[in-house]
Amino acid sequence: MALFLVILSCGKVSAVADRVVFYPSGADFSSTVKADVKSDVNGSYVMFTLSGQAVPDTFTIAALSEGVSVNDVSWTRSDLSRSPAAVDLGKKIDQLKFKRDSVISQQQAVDGGISFWKERGSKQQIKPSDMGNIAGQVVSSLSKLYQESAKLKVKINDLQELINDLQRQLNDLSGGGKLVWNMKVSVAAKGAKNADFKIGYMLHNCGWTPKYKLDAYPSAGKVKFAFEAEIRQASGMDFKSCDVALATVKKHSRISPPQLGRWVIEPKPEPEPERYAMDEVQMAMEAAPVSMGKGRNMVRKSAPKRVSKATYSLWEMGRKTIPAGSTRKYAVESETWKADFSFIARPSLTPDVFVSAKTVLAEAKDYPSGTVLMFMEGTMIGKRKFSFSGKEKKLFFGSDPMLKAERKIIEKKSGEQGMFSSKQTYSWKYGIELENSRIAPVKVLVQEPAPVTGDKRIKLEITSKPETEIKDDNFEWLVEVPAAGKYDLNYAVEMTAPDDMDLDLGIGR
Prior knowledge:
This protein is an alpha+beta fold. The chain contains three helices and 23 strands. The relative contact order is 0.12.
């Protein structure tokens, strides 16, 4: 259907779709229109009929014609089920249903004939001399009836498809409902018969979802990146040759910063269970996000263009036609990123060695949260959530089946120092074996938890071969594992503490 419906009692309205900006939930539509100026006892006015999915209090209008100005806007709802277009569609649907039911009756009669001939051929007593003649009649009759039944089934299916198509048109007439918005705009027109206006408003039941693909090629030092947008369009109006844009504004994002709490140091009050429960409910209500409203064909023409705004990015998709009721997927961006690949092993947790890629882009990007399909050299390894804001990004591409890391406990013991010692001691010794089945050597970053003391009376002595670095409370070794070979490393922790100290050994217990 057209972007605007024609209200006969108010004159014709012509419209040229200018622009639609899709948000994650909702869409912002704007258009330049020429409308007939009408008059009643209250003065001059123009009328617009909007989809039932429009949000009337977001409606904006500006006069573009000289000598015309806008005074005020009011709106009412109408039931489209009584409109001439809806009535006409309803009549067509009823006629097609009558034809379909007639054909179904014919098919039932044919199926009855098939049953008759099947029963006669299997149960009726026949003289041997008549056997050949009767058999020929049964076969001939059944053959004709089966052909006729097949033709009738095709006809029934065709009629049902036509009914479904008209029913969709009827539903799309007002965005799946039967109500539309009538916008009455009071104007000062100085005798003008028509005028140009710029109008805009928000729409429910529209939105877009980002879809990503990341394909890693460690040997080439690159990651292939693809970004697509799945656009939902159930506004009840067709977007014909619109300038389409996608905004990366986060769902339920804050308008203003949260209030800072007071820092009060005071004695703890006695707990009040009932009051505490009420405070929790109130806090939850205050923290709840404000609702933004209710909410596959591959198409690619001109390359989309990203425009950075103050707080979000806008992807300009070019001119597109998106019919009502459709969901389509569009290519937004495809790039190849240079990446530094590394391999990370945490053998106390898993023998797997994971592939990591760090990429630094030339300019900052803003990719909203969506689902990404992860590939390793063209083979899919899984999917996960993905977002990217800024220039640098660290990515993981699962484990490398050609690499393994195994940690073994060489020694774990406790005891005392000396016959009259007041010290307790603990000793941990571990060995890690890295195995590389690739035809080239690989550098692997091995990480293991390093013990941290919570008391200065606890003393630690650490030995490692090769030497280790401690970063962020972790042991780290960057080692090169030879092609089709193995690499061994060892480390040990010796601890002493007062004999009367009750120790929690953490993960070393």
